[in-house]
Amino acid sequence: MQTNVNHIFRRRLTQLVVIAEVPLLLLGIKAIYEPAYIDAWILLVGAVLLLVVPWFTYQQRHKLASGCFIGILSLMMVAMQWSTGGIRDNSVMALPGLLIFASMIGFNSLYNSLLVFLICNLLLMGIAADSGWVFDPSSNSFSNAFNISIILVITAIAAKILARDNINLVALLNQQVEEVRRAKEDVEFRALHDNLTNLPNRQFAEEHFDVLQHRLSRGMIANAAVIYVDFDEFKDINDTQGHAVGDRFLTAKAQALVDCTRVTDQVCRIGGDEFLILVEDLEELQLAQLAQKLLQHAMREIQIDGNLLHCTCSIGIVCLPKDAETYEDAVKRADIAMYRSKRDGKNRFHFYDRSMELIVNRRYQLQSQIMSAILDEQFYIVLQPIVHLESRNIVGAEVLARWAHPELGEISPAEFIPLAESNGLIDELWIFVMHHALEAARLLRQLEPEFYVTVNIAPNQLKSPGFFDQCEHVIRESQLPFSALKLEITESEMIERDTEFDATLDQLHQNNIGLLLDDFGTGYSNLGHLQKMLFEAIKVDRLFINHCHLNEDTGALLRAIVAMSGELNVGLIAEGIETEDELARVQELGILKGQGYLLARPMLVNDLKQALQTAA
Question: Which positions fall inside the GGDEF domain (predicted)?
């Protein structure tokens, strides 16, 4: 704002100097031709002296410039008045104009001094004329001087009022202009920056990417990179601590990212807990060192409201120009590399390579086709027989889902089940499997009346309020007893139990739907599960059995499980029996049931039906 005021003052004073110079030169030339050499000398000397005013204005010495301008003009007029006709001199007519000039550019002290000086000069000339000291005698010279003084005072007051209003108006306009300028700057800033962290946003990142590409094409920089940072488990902090704490935590983490980077690097928040860092002139080794630094800073705990909070981050890196040419491609591929870091266990970084995109494209393709695959019955089931080890009779079977993709062939459950979970279609897939599993059970129970099928439950299904109702509906549709179905729950799911989980388990147990604890020995191997939960059987993992003769603690734990299962009337099923030695070890431990390739491979329903018919 002060800059605007200075500019206006400089422009106004320069204009007044030009306005004064032109008539002074014309009057000076006229005085030479009259001839009136004294007046001509005063006018021309004053015109020359006024040339110093713009110089002082340029130097921003405003008071001195104003004083020189008003002082030179007033002394010129006084000199002309005293040298010729006194109050009858034509220059007296210019005194009101001089006061107006002073009100426009002068300061209060200068303005008041000028008014006093001019009035005193007029009165003194009136007295001098009446007394006959100078000038030609005239009647009432003092009275005329007094009248002129009154006119000057009135003019001065009016000019001062108008000047003050003008100054206030200019100040108000300047204030409004400044407010508009600040508002415009704020809008422009907000358009390119994040409201929470004040970091550059997605639009800024895209514009800066174009700058990097331009500098790369001109050879101004050797290389550049886009680093995608996503904070792991930040949602848990938001959900448990509240969004206000989450915002403070995220702001602190954003500052940590900035602290890790150089002034020339740009840290941008593109949404949620996702950030882009655009860097230049760093080789891959230096990028790796920067990524490691970012990981270390991200892990640091932050204390908020007395709570120590922490999370890790996953990072993906795209190198320019080799990995991408456009902003969209760079962000997409950095995102792919970042998700690779998440899939590999989080708290790590990966550089993008082409194979990652092929994997992600396949993942997206499969994920988008799961629903149509269910409707088109591309999914089917195979049955892994559960065998009584002593009699070798098949007593049940574990149901395994398979996907026969028309273009890609057989898709592994390890690939499509996580995809179904991530896009919310796991319930639809599970119901499909349940229908076919119970249909198979109904067919096979014609040959083996006590035959049952076991179906795996995906994580979080037991926490769904409508899970038991789904089970009940599907079983009643099959017209089978509830005992024909058993559900397998992994040990890891037991760690995250809640009241909804336990209530569903109670409903299943009360309705005679058997529960099997799956993969025991691969997780926590917690015997407390056997005491607290009413499991019908425990499925002991193959690795657990194979390690029991190598590790005394493992062997002791397994023998304790066998003993406790007998006391609690909980059955044991050995998984993954593939050799005669493994079978002998299982039988030596006293485990009665098992499954594995040595006993029977997974097979289609008709093949299992034929196996039962042969055994009969």
Answer: 222-354
Distance, in Å, from the CA atom of 120 to the CA atom of 117, rounded to the nearest integer, reads: 5
**Segment 372-422, tens digit of pLDDT:** 999 999 999 999 999 999 999 999 999 999 999 999 999 999 889 988 988
Cβ neighbours for 115, distance < 8 A, ≥ 6 positions apart: 99, 152, 153, 156
Same domain? For 16 and 106 the reply is yes
The DSSP letter of residue 473 is H
Most confident of 154-168, 402-416, 513-527: 402-416
Q: Which amino acid is at 551?
A: N
3-state DSSP percent of the chain in helix, strand and coil, to 5: 60, 15, 25
pTM of the model: 0.60
CB 392 within 8 A of CB 592: no
Alpha helices per DSSP H over 535-604: 542-547, 552-568, 580-589
The verdict on 325 and 369 lying in the same domain is: no
**φ and ψ at residue 545, rounded to 5 degrees:** -70, -45
Q: Is residue 191 part of a domain?
A: no
Domain of residue 23, residue span:
2-176
Q: Cα–chain-centroid distance for residue 119?
A: 71
545-604 pLDDT tens trace: 777 666 777 777 778 878 888 877 889 999 988 888 889 888 888 899 999 999 999 999
Q: Note whether residue 190 is domain-resident.
A: no
